[in-house]
Amino acid sequence: WADRWQMEFNAEKCEVIHFGRSNRKTEYWANGKILGSVDEQRDLGVHVHRSLKVATQVERVVKKAYGVLAFIGRGIEFRSHEVMLQLYKTLVRPHLEYCMQFWSPHYRKDVEALERVQRRFTRRLPGMEGRSYEERLKDFCFR
Q: Which of 10, 29, 50, 73 is deepest in the core (most CB within 10 A)?
């Protein structure tokens, strides 16, 4: 196919991911070389595991979101609700929601890991000390 369409591939950069437990794991060739097989691949910033579980993607997203929260915590002195809500929507949520339709988490542990980011953010807001998460969320989102 590649020869017919005059498309060149660098076999050193190509990898194969085999999905499913009953996959026969056939070897694939390109330019006379066997392509390497991997368990996980990153495409458009989304990490896909051969089992199609999204745990590694969730871990990476949560780590990145916590980093952004730390940046906001260190760098922002004026912490009004309006400013903090804009910072959260602009800097944190895009990391949590990027390609969510594709890697949509359905295991409770993955959903809770994503939810902890928002819990931590609302807990650090001024005037939210000692309130439950549900109260913080209602007050934070509807101001």
A: 50
Contact indicator for 24, 77 with CB cutoff of 8 Å: no
Place of tokens 């969320």: 137
The values of phi and psi at residue 67, to 5°, are -60, -40
Provide DSSP, the chain.
-TTTTT----TTT-EEE--STT------EETTEEPEEESEEEETTEEEETT---HHHHHHHHHHHHHHHHHHHHH-----HHHHHHHIIIIIHHHHHTTHHHH---SHHHHHHHHHHHHHHHHTSTT-TT--HHHHHHHHHT-
Give the predicted TM-score (pTM) of the model.
0.79
